[in-house]
């Protein structure tokens, strides 16, 4: 409804005292109403023309903010109005936030939450992919709310235990650039490089940089989708399984790759870490196939959830590919669960191996033909010219530059050419990569480096825009600091936060040199460390790592029970 002053375009009641409003002007609080906006606090960092949805950390921070206001004694008798501007992109992101709160905390269905948001004939601009060209696929606010609802149903996240500091720390390029898509199942990360170094301003990490974190989180399997930038033996010598499922950057996988990926995922001993060049397009596409098959999310819901977890994922033709694959993935999932149910009821004594082999026999009719021989599937010769920047190169460079700019200048310029200021407490961090906890102790004495620890400076600055905001950065807790493994952060001294932007730029240059010098520790010791560990254990390659992807690989007997228990939880929900 419109107000007499013309300032109020629409106000929608969400729940009791909670309202959502679209306003033309900034309102003033009254005796009965408290207004607040997150338009300049929770800001999406775009790659190109993409503008949302906001990530999981922002949804969490928003929900905490709403809960705090609703429980506030001083606001107990007031209406709480979340208002947004007439900017359609801000409206869409704000709608996803308050809609997600309705789904998670008010226990509304996605459709109920969405109906409240579109009252008064409101419409919201659909989200788009992180590409430069014309948008060919629309992702709606309702798609995002459905994704949050399904993710909540299948326990992909739990805000009672969600660690927002850890999420924001590890998504930064210098801290590993990875995100959990499905906890205890899939982690998506940016592709490792032969050596830890800084290239064109982007921190590159050697495989050894991830070992300690991966082991702590029971990651046993690595799947590489891009061309070979590092020797797979770096992982297999360290007792990780490693598989290559190459397809060209920005393209879609053929049937054989999808089938192999699902087979590996359904038989993995532990958690799976997947990467391509940037860990966005190809990585998100294959994870979405698994989600559609085993959780029966729609293609749009799978894309929405993966982007909420890891913004920028699934790009261009990959979106349409998933729409085409949805029916076949659902059919395969139905057959898988039917056979699993028969086995659990004692009607089929053969076990999981037969279940999986039955699923493998399904033909996937996507009307696509692969005109390249099977042995070319992982051949780097079909990759674009090495001197050309691929889609993954460009996306990774954009992510690094915007994070570095935010950390060194305290601001980031978005496509609307608006400057969003950062908290001045967010100083530049220096990163030291180490090959193991032991090498960390011997190569870098704590007493030799003042100020060892973690602060909010190591976090990705995609949230609080105002220094005095209730959402401003806080130091990382000791538990997170102890979990960093090989991706340790050294913060600048306290005075560094008070220096000028010019000095911040100089610090950034010093930071790069320091990080590059310290990365020599992991580069020089990586091969000798892995060989020594292998020798101590009497083997050089994991028994699981010798599987040849050109042949079938059935489920090992000792994995059957794990496979059954993993899919039992899914069966209970579907």
From TrEMBL:
As for subcellular location, the record says: Cell projection, Kinocilium; Cytoplasm, Cytoskeleton, Microtubule organizing center, Centrosome; Cytoplasm, Cytoskeleton, Spindle pole; Nucleus
For bias type Low complexity, the affected ranges are 517-528
* Family matches, as InterPro entries: CDC14_C, DSPn, Dual-sp_phosphatase_cat-dom, Prot-tyrosine_phosphatase-like, PTP, Tyr_Pase_AS, Tyr_Pase_cat, Tyr_Pase_dom
The Polar residues compositionally biased stretches are 455-472, 497-516
Q: Which residues form the Tyrosine specific protein phosphatases domain?
A: 259-321
Q: Which GO terms describe its cellular component?
A: centrosome; kinocilium; nucleus; spindle pole
Instruction: Give the catalytic activity.
Output: O-phospho-L-threonyl-[protein] + H2O = L-threonyl-[protein] + phosphate; O-phospho-L-seryl-[protein] + H2O = L-seryl-[protein] + phosphate
Where does the Tyrosine-protein phosphatase domain start and stop, copy by copy?
A: 177-334
Q: What is this protein called?
A: Dual specificity protein phosphatase CDC14A
Name its species. Answer: Callorhinchus milii
């Amino acid at each position: 409804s419109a107000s007499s002053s013309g300032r109020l375009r629409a106000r929608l009641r969400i729940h009791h005292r909670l309202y959502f409003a679209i306003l033309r002007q900034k309102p003033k609080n009254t005796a009965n109403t408290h207004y607040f906006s997150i338009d300049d606090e929770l800001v999406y960092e775009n790659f190109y023309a993409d503008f949302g949805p906001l990530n999981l950390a922002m949804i969490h921070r928003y929900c905490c903010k709403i809960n705090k206001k609703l429980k506030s004694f001083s606001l107990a008798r007031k209406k709480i109005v979340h208002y947004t501007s007439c900017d359609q992109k801000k409206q869409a992101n704000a709608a996803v936030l308050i809609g997600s709160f309705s789904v998670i905390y008010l226990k509304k269905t996605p459709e109920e939450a969405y109906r409240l948001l579109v009252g008064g004939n409101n419409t919201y601009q659909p989200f788009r992919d992180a590409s430069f060209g014309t948008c060919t696929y629309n992702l709606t606010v309702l798609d995002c709310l459905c994704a949050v609802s399904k993710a909540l149903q299948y326990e992909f996240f739990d805000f009672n235990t969600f660690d927002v500091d850890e999420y924001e720390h590890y998504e930064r390029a210098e801290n590993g650039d990875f995100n959990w898509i499905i906890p205890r199942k899939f982690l998506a990360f940016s592709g490792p490089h032969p050596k830890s170094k800084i290239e064109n301003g982007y921190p590159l990490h050697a495989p050894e940089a991830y070992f300690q974190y991966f082991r702590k989180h029971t990651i046993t399997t690595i799947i590489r989708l891009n061309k070979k930038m590092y020797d797979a033996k770096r992982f297999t010598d360290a007792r990780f399984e490693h598989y290559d499922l190459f397809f060209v950057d920005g393209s879609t996988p053929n049937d054989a790759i999808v089938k192999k990926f699902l087979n590996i995922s359904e038989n993995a001993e532990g958690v799976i870490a997947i990467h391509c060049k940037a860990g966005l397009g190809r990585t998100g596409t294959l994870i979405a196939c698994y989600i559609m098959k085993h959780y029966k999310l729609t293609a749009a819901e799978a894309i929405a959830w993966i982007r909420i977890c890891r913004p920028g994922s699934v790009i261009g033709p990959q979106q349409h590919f998933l729409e085409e694959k949805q029916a076949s993935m659902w059919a395969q999932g139905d057959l898988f669960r039917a056979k699993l149910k028969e086995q659990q009821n004692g009607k089929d004594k053969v076990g999981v191996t037969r279940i999986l082999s039955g699923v493998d026999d399904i033909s996937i009719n996507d009307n696509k033909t692969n005109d390249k021989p099977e042995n070319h599937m992982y051949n780097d010769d079909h990759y674009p010219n090495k001197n050309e920047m691929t889609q993954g190169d460009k996306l990774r460079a954009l992510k690094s530059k915007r994070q570095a700019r935010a950390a060194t200048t305290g601001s980031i310029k978005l496509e609307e050419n608006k400057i969003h200021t950062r908290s001045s407490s967010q100083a530049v961090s220096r990163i030291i990569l180490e090959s193991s906890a032991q090498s960390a102790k011997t190569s870098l004495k704590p007493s030799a480096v003042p100020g060892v620890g973690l602060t909010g400076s190591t976090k990705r600055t995609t949230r609080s825009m105002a220094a005095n905001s209730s959402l401003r950065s806080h130091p990382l807790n000791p538990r997170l600091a102890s979990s960093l493994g090989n991706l340790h952060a050294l913060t600048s001294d306290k005075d560094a936060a008070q220096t000028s932007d010019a000095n911040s730029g100089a610090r950034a240059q010093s930071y790069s040199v320091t990080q590059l010098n310290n990365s020599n520790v992991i580069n020089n010791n990586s091969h000798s460390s892995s060989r020594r560990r292998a020798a101590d254990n009497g083997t050089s390659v994991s028994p699981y790592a010798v599987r040849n992807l050109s042949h079938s690989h059935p489920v090992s007997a000792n994995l059957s029970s794990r496979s059954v228990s993993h899919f039992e939880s899914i069966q209970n929900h579907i």
